[in-house]
Specification:
The chain contains 43 helices and four strands. By secondary structure, the chain is mainly alpha-helical. The strands form two sheets. The chain has a two-stranded parallel ribbon. Helix 3 packs across helix 4, helix 29 runs antiparallel to helix 30 and helix 35 runs antiparallel to helix 36. The chain is globular and about 105 Å long. The N and C termini lie far apart (84 Å).
């Protein structure tokens, strides 16, 4: 038979190369496997290849001398890509659960999401202890478990429901070691040194739970509750063991949810509170628990759709639940990121807080005030903030100090007193090792406008979100980190963080929060002269913000438009835009961005000949105490005094700023001061001294890729008699926007998808690519990736060359 098969394969091979594929060889009988082995050994010399597939961990009769390639499970990155391409939209926490329980199995990655039957499950709010299996997966993984003796299956069920991080099963395993042997012999489980029972494949764990009856599961949870030493874990098992309503179990689960928040696991907290509500008989109490879960889901875990579903359930439980404080907080958070307007959300929260006891320790008070602060931020009107001030004063004895401080240092940074800042410094130091994302973000927001970022703590929140944790909390953290990167001149990092945040917001339905991320990207675009992107984004921003009365977005865009005008030397335009918010010398109550645009207004006023107004603005900032708020604001006040100094004192004033070693922490503003100083010296014909200042401005602007500012500095430098070479600006150099569009196009996105990400029209994207192709020397989209890789390699080689005068752009 072997000879006949080889002859036949030889005949077929004459027509062309032949591939033989045999799947599931572990199921071949001995005779068939031996015949296949003989054929495999004698294929040498024929245009025939044989490929067999065998399940990992199984045995077969195939000759072991054949070449073997072991295919391991998909890693997390590939699993995530497969899941995104095939599954319905999932919350990041749900996606992470699917990846963990699939264990790298491609079929499981496709099948497990199909078993998620409700919006709450896809949103991560009602995920079962172990994900359910589809019929296809159950067939594959249940057979070996089903064949085990009942006592063995009971032990496996305990381990499956105990969770990945559950308590050791020491007493149970010690008493039933013999019962465990069949599962160990089949390679289904192993016992760790600390007496935890671990499944060798996560889907075996899921199959074990699927095969158990509801009564068996409840009994197993009761047993685990007796073994648990951690109160939160005990509460979880009690809740799962309960049948019908159980107020004691519900109260314990609610507390376990709050403990989960303090430990940094908001997603777990929401799930525990939802289960607590299911066990609650009294309608209003059930509605309150659902509202608390909805608030955490909307504001922190990133489950906006799930929060809406929970609120609807709360209304069904108690029709007047919408008037409770917790429901108002959750509903306002949902309104803020849906079609509702700012004023409606504001009225809802203020009315609910007005009826609350100012001595109440109900967490709903904190939730409502936190949400009201977010509403005021995007509302951008003093009247909204004034109501928040009165509310915070009323509840100041029960609210966290970071929240009380943040109402002032975040809501009205220009009026932050030394006492407030000292207390905030202490909170920043204390939050260093905290794991509670709610507290971390409260401190982070309190320090946002006064340059006190608990960076390490905020990075922990962001990293947790990247792993599938609280995505809305992570998005807020990304904004805080991006703003800090912008101020300190790390613009590439700032844009990357802002874009990551914007993608999270679009994926999870947070359009309001997305504008916070967009603001950082637009600041960089304005400084780099990307006017087309600014126009497109600003038009879109106004269309979105005005109907919702989110007027802070208009203030953001005025600031970025003014910065773009300054970059190109249009000082009159910049002055008009900045003074439309507040006149020189005035820092209105609750003007959050006034402290950021301090130097912009001074520069615009000086550039239009309004030196007196510029000087008055600096004096007002100094009298208000802005130099005491932070070193960055102190630097800007000193820079403003230098820019407005008279002919007799300006040299000393500028030198006091540019020669300060700490000034390098803010390279963009330092470069602008160097440019202004050089221009003053040049106008006074002190050309040699002017060159030193202008050369430094050229260097700093070049590092930031701030092209319009760099052009201005080079023009001034040429006028001193120094020749400027544009070594870094070759005729075919890509602009920052062109590089970003080319990168996205190379990743496979369409023009429409790129436009959605960058707030450009598909036509504008196409126009940019039309200019990019000849610059890169290509003619097709398919060649983009290689061309960009080569361009980056050339840039890296250039930047690694020894530095000389050419590195400064001058000779």
């Amino acid at each position: 038979m072997t000879t006949a098969l080889l002859s036949w394969f030889g005949l077929l091979g004459r027509r062309g190369p032949l591939l033989l594929v045999v799947d599931d060889v572990q199921w071949l009988d001995r005779a068939s496997a031996l015949a296949l082995s003989r054929v495999a050994r004698r294929l040498s010399g024929l245009p025939v290849a044989l490929l067999t597939a065998q399940r990992s961990g199984s045995e077969s009769f195939l000759d072991e001398r054949t070449d073997t390639l072991t295919l391991g499970p998909l890693d997390d990155a590939d699993a995530a890509r497969l899941l995104r391409s095939r599954a319905v939209p999932l919350h990041p926490a749900t996606r992470r659960r699917v990846i963990l329980e699939a264990g790298g199995n491609p079929l499981a990655l496709v099948e497990l999401p199909r078993a998620l039957t409700s919006e709450e499950e896809r949103a991560g709010d009602r995920l079962p202890v172990v994900l359910r299996l589809t019929d296809r997966l159950r067939t594959m993984f249940a057979a070996r478990v089903e064949a085990l003796p009942r006592p063995t299956r009971h032990l496996l069920l305990l381990a499956a429901l105990n969770g990945r991080d559950g308590a050791p099963l020491v007493p149970t395993l010690a008493a039933a070691a013999a019962d465990l042997a069949p599962a160990e012999e089949q390679g289904l489980v192993r016992v760790e040194r600390d007496q935890r029972l671990v499944f060798r494949h996560p889907l075996t764990r899921a199959a074990t739970v699927e095969l158990a009856t509801p009564a068996e599961r409840r009994a197993a949870h009761r047993h685990l509750a007796e073994l648990a030493t951690d109160p939160s874990l005990r509460a979880v098992h009690r809740g799962e063991a309960a049948l019908g309503y159980d107020e004691d179990a519900a109260a314990a689960l609610q507390e376990a949810g709050r403990v989960a928040v303090s430990r940094g696991d908001v997603v777990q907290a929401v799930a525990r509170m939802v289960r607590a509500a299911e066990l609650t008989a009294e309608p209003r109490e059930r509605a309150r628990r659902l509202a608390e879960a909805a608030y955490l889901g909307a504001n922190f875990s990133g489950s906006l759709d799930g929060a809406h579903a929970l609120l609807e359930e709360a209304r069904r439980a108690a029709p007047d639940a919408v008037h409770t404080l917790g429901a108002a907080a959750a509903a306002a958070a949902h309104l803020l990121n849906s079609d509702g307007d700012i004023d409606t959300a504001h009225r809802m929260l203020v009315a609910a807080l007005a009826h609350a006891d100012p001595r109440s320790t109900d967490p709903a008070v904190e939730a409502a005030v936190t949400t009201l602060m977010a509403v005021c931020t995007f509302g951008g009107r003093a009247a909204l903030w004034e109501e928040l001030d009165r509310t915070v004063a009323r509840f100041s004895t029960v609210l966290p100090r970071a929240l009380v401080l943040g109402a002032r240092t975040f809501g009205d940074p220009a009026r932050s007193t030394p006492a407030m800042l000292a207390e905030l410094d202490a909170l920043v130091e204390q939050i260093g090792s905290d794991t509670n994302p709610v507290r971390i973000l409260q401190v982070g927001l309190a320090g946002h406008y006064v340059d006190r970022l608990p960076r390490a703590a905020v990075e922990r929140v962001v990293d947790d979100a990247r792993r599938g944790g609280a995505v809305a909390a992570g998005a807020n953290g990304l904004i805080l980190l991006a703003v800090d990167a912008y101020h300190t001149g790390r613009w590439t990092e700032a844009v990357a963080l802002a874009q990551e945040c914007a993608e999270w917001c679009r994926e999870n339905g947070y359009p309001t929060l997305e504008w916070g991320a967009l603001h950082v990207s637009l600041l960089v675009a304005a400084a780099r002269g990307d006017r087309q992107r600014l126009r497109d984004a600003h038009e879109r921003a106004h269309r979105w913000a005005v109907p919702r009365r989110a007027y802070a977005v208009r203030t953001f865009t005025s600031g970025t438009e003014a910065l773009a005008a300054l970059a190109s030397g249009r000082h009159e335009d910049a002055y008009a835009l900045l003074t439309s918010v507040a006149p020189p010398g005035d820092f209105p109550d609750h003007d959050q961005l006034g402290v950021w645009s301090l130097l912009d207004l001074v520069e615009a006023a000086v550039g239009t000949g309004r030196v007196g107004e510029a000087r008055a603005h600096v004096e007002a900032a100094t009298a208000l105490g802005l130099p005491r708020v932070s070193p960055r604001l102190a630097f800007q006040c000193r820079a403003g005094r230098a820019m407005t100094a008279d002919a007799r004192t300006y040299r000393a004033a500028f030198e006091d700023v540019v020669d300060d070693p700490g000034a390098s922490a803010w390279p963009f503003h330092l470069a602008r001061v160097e440019l202004a100083f050089g221009d003053r010296l040049r106008q006074d014909r002190e050309l040699r001294r002017a060159r030193v200042r202008l050369e430094r401005a050229v260097e700093l602007f070049a590092r930031l890729d701030a092209t319009p500012w760099l052009d201005r500095a080079r023009t001034s430098l040429r006028s001193t008699g120094r020749t400027v070479r544009r070594a870094a600006a070759a005729p075919d150099a890509l602009t920052p926007q062109e590089r970003e569009i080319a990168r996205l196009a190379a990743s496979g996105l369409t023009n429409r998808q790129i436009g959605s990400r960058l707030f450009l029209s598909p036509r504008t994207v196409g126009g940019h690519l039309y200019r990019v192709f000849p610059k890169l020397g290509i003619s097709t989209r398919a060649a983009l990736r290689d061309a960009l890789t080569e361009r980056e390699r050339e840039r890296a080689t250039t930047s690694a060359a020894p530095r000389d005068d050419a590195a400064y752009g001058v000779s």
